[in-house]
Specification:
single chain; 403 residues; mainly alpha; Growth Hormone, Chain: A; two-stranded antiparallel ribbon; 1% strand; globular; cell membrane
Length: 403
Amino acid sequence: MNTPSLSMAGQPGKRQSWLAVGAVGLATFSVVTTEMLPVGLLTSIADSLQTSTGKAGLLISLPALLAALFAPLVVLVSGGVDRRRILCGLLALLVVANIASALAPSIVWMLAARVLVGFCMGGIWAIAGGLASRLVPAQSVGLATSIIFGGVAAASVLGVPLGALMGDLLGWRWAFGGMALLSASVLIFHLAVIPPLSVSCSTTWRQFVEQFGNRRLWFGLLLTLMLVAGHFSAFTFVRPLLLSVSGIGSEWIGGLLFAYGVAGIVGNFLIGISAAQRTEASLMAVALGISITALLFLTVGGSPLSGGVILLLWGLAYGGVSVGLMSWMMKAAANAVEVATALYVAVFNIGIALGSWLGGQFVDAYGLSANLGLAGLASFVVFLLLFGIILRHKSCAKKQGPD
């Protein structure tokens, strides 16, 4: 079985290769910003469309759940179509989705537009996630993967706050209109710099079925579910956590979350570069970092200063999750990268939805501190599992002895 392999009309130069990597990073930035845009606009959208805040919350959860469904579907349906065409087509649909959102006359129309966003998100993540190895030499894959997934971290830092600011100044419809213009610009950039990405064979259902026996891949999916669900069970309630546990004034929350995002970008590149060579150790550092931040919040996070510093550590740790886990997937299924990426995107988005829901249940039943403890425990279990894997590798190497 062969994975879809790259076939380019003429090898692109080094400059064009990195421009192409940057373009793919901008695609992930655009789709994730579009996904998260309603976070800062939820009240305005609900009031304008005459619906409840709870129903408006579907604008966040619906695309995430649909992305989990659409990621494998897009890979299967795409067949042998040039991946450049697919990315450009999905970006064009993203432009349409943002325009439809900006013009939405009702919540039903808005939800329909968000279904399209879920399709674009699942497709772009599934295709883009495995492109690093196709665009740059092997020794540069770690950095290229960091740039591609850096679009996700940058969306949290710049996209969502700027969208919320535009919504406050001009209205929420202009925020989506601005995203339509940005997505159109990214599409034009793709057409200019992305080389042809034809494939020698298409992804099939059989390839998915064959991966059911790939224990390393399924272990990676388990790690993904635990890390992402654990994180979002706590991070969904980061605002009340900072307000009530650390006593931080509401006027400081926006700036702190921006700083959290910047720390996340730093963590993304640190882990992205190291994970290419030391995947297990890099993910162990991420998992331990997240569990330690939860412990610190519970023990010494009761002041504004300590709460702010711990939040930055949290951002630094979580920033490496996406790229670290993607590195695991690429190694676990090197001969079926698109299959692994599609499954990874699906489980990642399920983790977002599941974590947010479980966090809400725990906060209502036991409070913020108990929920934070649960999140820290989930990450620590991931750390222990990875530690066990490393010990097993060392034991096997010792039994085999020197060659």
